[in-house]
């Protein structure tokens, strides 16, 4: 079966490092641009009746999976687990699944209807293969076990020290989400103890930070091209 790209999403994530590990963890906004074939409004008739959508998309910059196990970064990159017991991006088929909140539909002259969504965890330009509505009675299982992620939930956050002199280098509308991303600690588990600079590429800025146990300190914000 050949997958047809129906759209792509524009986000502020230009590099893999720093992209939220799951959708919905931060309030990053994305714009879904349909390919010309799917810009007829009939394709999204009724979509505003739903608050959330499922996006089926492609990991466009990943290496191929070798073997049947992966080493989840959240577990320090040392423990092997079966690929189908994780959400690791390295998979037999490079397919991702995200639940995002539908904020609005923007009618544009150039691209037709554009879906504006929040909670995205995708690289800028990621291809989208399908969109389905999120249905609460069928899709939500709040009492379900979450495997090793039960100990790595939203509650696992770090303190972020973002000096005002550096925070002010970001446009006002980016500051809240930038802090949310850092609060989730973008470092892999095996990098947590390393005393070195880390760099998060976000909306045309490099956010440079140092990490200690349970704490991140931003040391600079540098404007780049986006």
Description:
This protein is mainly β and 226 residues long. The chain has two domains: 7-59 and 94-139, Elongation Factor Tu (Ef-tu), domain 3 (Beta Barrel); 152-223, RelE-like (YaeB-like fold), CATH 3.30.2310.20. A hairpin with a 3-residue loop joins strand 6 (95-108) and strand 7. It is built from three helices and twelve strands; from the N terminus they run ββββββββαβααβββ. The protein has helices at 136-139, 164-167, 172-183, and strands at 7-10, 29-34, 52-58, 69-70, 81-82, 95-108, 112-118, 126-133, 159-161, 197-202, 205-212, 215-223. Pfam families: TrmO_N. Residues 3-143 form the TsaA-like domain. This is tRNA (N6-threonylcarbamoyladenosine(37)-N6)-methyltransferase TrmO.
Structural class call reads mainly beta
> What is the CATH first-level class name of the largest domain?
Mainly Beta
Q: List the secondary-structure elements in sequence, H or E.
A: EEEEEEEEHEHHEEE
How big is the Rg?
Answer: 18 Å
Approximately how much beta-strand content do the residues carry? 25-35%
**Main beta sheet strand tally, sense and closure:** 6 strands, antiparallel, barrel
Cα(first) to Cα(last) distance is 35 Å
- What is the residue-averaged pLDDT? 89
What is the CATH topology descriptor of the largest domain?
Elongation Factor Tu (Ef-tu), domain 3
